[in-house]
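QA checklist item 7 of 12: single-chain prediction sanity check.
[x] sequence parsed
[x] length recorded as 255
[x] structure emitted
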Amino acid sequence: LLLRWRDLGSWGPPEAALMTLVILLAFDLMAFIMMIDHLWKINDLAMFVFIFLPPLVQPAAIVLGVVFLLTEVPAVGCIFGAMELFGTVNALFTLVVLAPEENPDALIFDFMALALIALVKAVLFSAANAHVMHLQAARDVEFMGTSDGEFLGRILATRSNGGEEEDEVEEESSIQGAHGDSDSSPERQNAFAVAVADGCRRPRAGSSNSPRRTLSSNFRMPGSSMDSLGRRHGPGSSRSPVSGTSSLGTSGFSA
């Protein structure tokens, strides 16, 4: 606390909450030891209830409180506050056990002692929550205080890692596609090669046939050209099937 006050040069709510937490935690430890000694002398059952109902809440709260003060981890502070809040239940159950056996004067004394312990634990719960909020706020301010270059560098590093993963996925898919193409039949590969070669050809000068017609003529099934020409021109046509066939064959090999 003194080092923080020397660094900051002022005393604010975070330091006040931390000071309250330190003082009340020491007082809670002292009250726990004194109450155990008092109950051990007057009633063993009350001492057992004070320690184990709920089980070992107060010893765990003291240990977690010391750890929280040394480490200042917000999660540990939240657990410490919950343990202190459950510690008030120990005091209530202990008072219920002592009520039938104590005389009125002793019962009033025990009631005041247990009420003071419960009040200390409630204030410890509030102080722990306040200190946790101050720690979280300080970390948020530290994060917002980072430079723009560092912030953008983190974003670009994240995106570059994502781009490398996408490149790896594309490379794997291309390899799988290459393996898939290798499984195709030789007939299919030959037909594809012929189609590409015929599509890239150009007709000679003076030829009236277009590349589309040349490509279609090359892909006519054997034996079907004569039948199609015979049906198209008929018996009375002046154009003979032979001449049509020769012209188609010439156009097919014109390239």
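[x] summary fact logged: The chain has a mean pLDDT of 70.
[ ] second reviewer sign-off
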